[in-house]
Amino acid sequence: MTLYDNHGRPLNYLRLAVTDRCNLRCFYCMPEDGIRYLPKKDLLSFEEIGRLISILATLGISKVRLTGGEPFVRQDLMQLIHRITEIPGIKDLHITTNGVLTAPHIAALKKAGIGSVNLSLDTLDRDRFKAITRRDEFAPVMHTLEQLLEHDIPVKINAVVMEGKNIDDIFPLIELTRHHNVDVRFIEEMPFNGEGNHYPTLHWTYTRILDYIRTQYPTLTKKIDPQGSTAYSYHVPGHRGDVGVIAAFSRTFCGTCNRIRVTAQGTLKTCLYDEGVLDIRALLRNGLPDEAIQEKLLTAFHQRAKDGFEAEAHRKNHAPVSESMSTIGG
């Protein structure tokens, strides 16, 4: 079964936040003093998550990515991972992590058949890491990267490009692709930091990032992007891995977007830039049968904004985007 939205875009990819809590305080994600976290009772339980994914699988969702906050802050996460791998129709399970708590679970992730791991890593310099994340956790993150490579788990490194913060890390991060089979993706900074946009104008757009990369790697070659990809994919001849650039703020990929999001409290977002379009947690807890929940989900999918700009324009009172990515679900 193929699920389509009202613009004819196939929907097959769920990004589900298992928690809004995080053990880092990244500059681009939340204020230094953190955010007000949800009480545990307000989070979807593992049973509710399993039921929701089963319902979505019957509609055509086949790929799931677990996000947060930081997923491994959620106790017994591996139990949920095993539960999801047993749901009929789910073909791919992936996870996004900051790597601080991940290394001890990598062998179990490999055994569970995890499809890939997205590792948030904005710098290869310990001091800059501490300045960006406001925590001194560089060593365990690098250990996680080493373990992922050793266990031959596909790895994508996500680096948010920030004016005055980590521009000097762009080339060193690309150098990781020379000898390692990793994808390094550079992401435009977005205003999802609990404070609003840090800059009046976004200096490091995806085009400027690409132009900068080409000053050091003039043979950078465009690859064919997979269907539904948010990244523009490139390869440096002679390197084992690839390079990507994600126009997260410019929103050039909306026309092929195949994903939906569910926050840790069970709110459906059919676009990263909307305010949430359906309270799934209430539906699950109010005793609705699966068929009724399916109908409400389909209604939401068929009222989807055509792009991130339209979704942002429809926010209540045209309020600017300012919530933390940890609250939204990465």
TrEMBL record:
Pfam families cross-referenced by the UniProt entry: Mob_synth_C, Radical_SAM
Pathway: Cofactor biosynthesis; molybdopterin biosynthesis
Domain of life from the UniProt record: Bacteria
Region Disordered: start-end pairs: 309-330
Positions contributing to S-adenosyl-L-methionine binding: Y28, G69, S120, M190
InterPro entries xrefs: Aldolase_TIM (IPR013785), Elp3/MiaA/NifB-like_rSAM (IPR006638), MoaA (IPR013483), MoaA-like (IPR040064), MoaA_NifB_PqqE_Fe-S-bd_CS (IPR000385), MoaA_twitch (IPR010505), MoCo_biosynth_MoaA/MoaC (IPR050105), rSAM (IPR007197)
Signal peptide: none
Enzyme Commission number: 4.1.99.22
Gene3D superfamilies, per the entry: Aldolase class I
Enzyme class, broadest EC rank: lyase
Reactions performed catalytically: GTP + AH2 + S-adenosyl-L-methionine = (8S)-3',8-cyclo-7,8-dihydroguanosine 5'-triphosphate + 5'-deoxyadenosine + L-methionine + A + H(+)
Binding site for [4Fe-4S] cluster 2: C254, C257, C271
Positions annotated to bind [4Fe-4S] cluster 1: C22, C26, C29
Keyword Chaperone: no
Domain Radical SAM core: 6-227
Function: Catalyzes the cyclization of GTP to (8S)-3',8-cyclo-7,8-dihydroguanosine 5'-triphosphate.
Record's subunit section: Monomer and homodimer.
PANTHER family per record: MOLYBDENUM COFACTOR BIOSYNTHESIS PROTEIN 1, MOLYBDOPTERIN COFACTOR SYNTHESIS PROTEIN A
Family the entry assigns: Belongs to the radical SAM superfamily. MoaA family.
Protein name as catalogued: GTP 3',8-cyclase
Gene name per UniProt: moaA
